[in-house]
């Protein structure tokens, strides 16, 4: 892709990757949820949210490439964009697929070398995690995607693959829906050892954790606050996110 290509990213983790790979100067638009790296994004136009981007704002930026995700962005917006601009839709549901997507992104925006360095590093981390054998049974984990109602993630999600890579057993793995509404009593009956409370998309904090612990909402399960990015963001963030997720679950 030409060095002066104009890029619009509708995916926060991909926005971070574009900048980390060396193409920040070509990023002309992103969503209001794109926050990293903060300094590089100060000059970048905001085009709305991931679920409700302004098509007119995107068109006004005259992008040579729009980056999207079929899970984070609506199908109707992707269809509209695809008829007007070059569109790269990446929706990895496993760590391996996310590494392949990172290599593809690097090739498309002309940053192959940087993408290869990140991808190789992430692959090495993943290989090390797969070869690590923790003593005893795998901890049974409920990853709380949402509260009111409580929602988890099944085996077809990126969250699940990160949990498995880190040696955890996802108690919602066999759910029919990708992000099932769950009954807390059922989670307790399934023997959840750990409940992960991320800071996005639902923002769990210490007050909520302590309230849940005091009420013994999840029985005797350990309640751990965590970074949602470490379990949900693909792209370059995996280089730091995967090791952090593994350390949290091994503690």
Instruction: Compute the number of structural domains.
Output: 2
The beta-strand count equals: 9
Mean pLDDT, to the nearest integer, reads 95
CATH class of the largest domain: Alpha Beta
Q: What is the CA-CA span between the terminal residues?
A: 44 Å
Order of helices and strands: EHEHEHEHEHHEHEHEHEHH
Low-confidence stretches: none
What is the assigned CATH homologous superfamily of the largest domain?
Nitrogenase molybdenum iron protein domain
Share of β-strand residues: 5-15%
Widest sheet, order of strands: 3-2-1-4-5
Overall shape: it is globular
The CATH topology of the largest domain is Rossmann fold
Q: How many individual helices? A: 11
Q: Biggest β-sheet: count, sense, barrel?
A: 5 strands, parallel
Estimate the helix proportion, in percent. 40-55%
Radius of gyration using CA atoms only: 19 Å
Structure report:
This protein is α/β, with parallel strands linked by helices and 251 residues long. It folds into 2 domains: 1-91, 3-Layer(aba) Sandwich (Rossmann fold), CATH 3.40.50; 92-251, 3-Layer(aba) Sandwich (Rossmann fold), CATH 3.40.50.1980. The protein is built from 11 helices and 9 strands. A 5-stranded parallel sheet has the order 3-2-1-4-5, sandwiched between helices. It has a 4-stranded parallel sheet with strand order 7-6-8-9, sandwiched between helices. Strand 2, helix 2 (38-41) and strand 3 form a beta-alpha-beta unit. The model has no long low-confidence stretch (mean pLDDT 95).
